[in-house]
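Fold it.
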Amino acid sequence: MKTLKKITSAVLALTLALSLTACSGKTDTPDTPDEPANTEEPAKVYKIGISQYGEHGSLDNCREGFLQGLAQAGLVEGTDFEVDYQNAGFDDAIATQIGQSFSAEDVDLMVGIATPSAVACFNAAEDKDIPVIFTAITDPVQAKLDAGNVTGTSDKLPVEAQLDLIRQLQPNAKTIGIIYTTSEPNSVSTIAEYKEKAGDYGFTIDDIGVTAQSEVTQAADTLISHGVDAFSNLTDNNVVGVLSAILEKTDAAGIPVYGSEVEQVKIGCVAAAGIDYIQLGIQTGMMAAKVLRGETTCQELPYETISEYGIYVNSDALNSLGVVLPDAVAEKAVESTEA
């Protein structure tokens, strides 16, 4: 009887233990660790501030090309970057305000289209060391944009090619009239080059400097009264901004105007030896993508210049003014009449 009692007690003890285990909900299966939390940070969306000095064809093309360059580099707007685009309306004070607003926003990159906007952006970015990319600047050295956290592309004009083009289209011309803004470094350096090289092609330069866009059409009247044989237009923003008004006056006087790029030819200049601003913008966008991704810095990336240029002609304007296009020019010219 003692043995049976011991066995019964043991069975009861085991049963009780099993019951307690079942109630506790525990099993002999090892604990499964919790899934690790997703600590991966979302991809950075770069904020780009674009300051354009004014609205005209060449600067618009720079902006369009810039966005194309970012896309060609694999950056998608809305996914990889967002743009704050501002237009200064050819007003230096507004360009300064735009640069300061970009700085206050702590944008990842400032883009200055044309010298006044680029200088304003660089001045506003310096304290925070925000990188600045410029485009449509003829002489970055003259504009003091060749050192610091800044780089970009130059639209330096092919002055000798332009002088040669004018000589071929107007064999008897003697004087070329040019209007430029005295405060724009691009224009100042280009006028100096024109004066240096004009004699090699048998020309003299009659130039008038202006301080504001409101003075440009009056300067055109003055050059017309001087009897110049042709006008050569620069990439001067104040002048380009009222180019249509200049062309009305020169067309009435029978004086051909030569542009500096394709958009000026489209609206009525007879011809131009100039660059393609879409391509200039694309080149700028590709540079900006490298800086944004940290592949290089502005200090490590020297500014770039497009060395190739095109010959653009407007046959309607040529015919209207009785200018004959030589076969040698026609063979390489691109027709650029506005649709």
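The first strand starts at residue 46 and ends at 52.
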